[in-house]
Amino acid sequence: MAQEKPTFDYHEESHGEKLARKSKESPFMVIGLASLAAAVGYGVYSFKNRGPMSTSVFLMQFRVIAQGATVGALTAGITYSMYSNYFNKTKAVLNTEH
Question: So which domain of life are we looking at (predicted)?
């Protein structure tokens, strides 16, 4: 029995194709990008309306908010992957045995 060699498609991906592929593989990446865009939009809006606060203090506070959003997105992604790999695994095994 001759084993067939796998065929690979080596074409250059555009940015849109890569984003679509990555979003299917990891849906929390899209949530992370959306939270990044929201944080930047909020930061720009808040910077214009910061009042007498100095720029350095504002940027330090904004950095903490951005890091919190990143850690929150990572935590949600890890929690989802742990649930799907460990806790939801018994349902998948039971469905394949029938």
Answer: Eukaryota
The single residue listed with the structure tokens 């992370």 is 32
- CA–CA distance, 98 with 87 (Å, rounded to integer): 20
Q: How far is CA 35 from the centre of its chain?
A: 9
Q: What integer best gives the mean pLDDT of the chain?
A: 80
Examine the pLDDT at 89 and tell me if it is beyond 80: no
What global pTM score does this model have? 0.55
Q: Collect all residues with Cβ–Cβ distance below 8 Å to 31 and sequence separation of at least 6.
A: 73, 76, 77
Distance (Å) of CA 90 to CA 32, 47, 84, 85: 29, 50, 10, 9
Q: Are 77 and 28 in contact (CB under 8 A)?
A: yes
Domain ranges of the chain: 53-92
Alpha helices in the chain (DSSP H): 15-25, 27-48, 55-82, 89-97
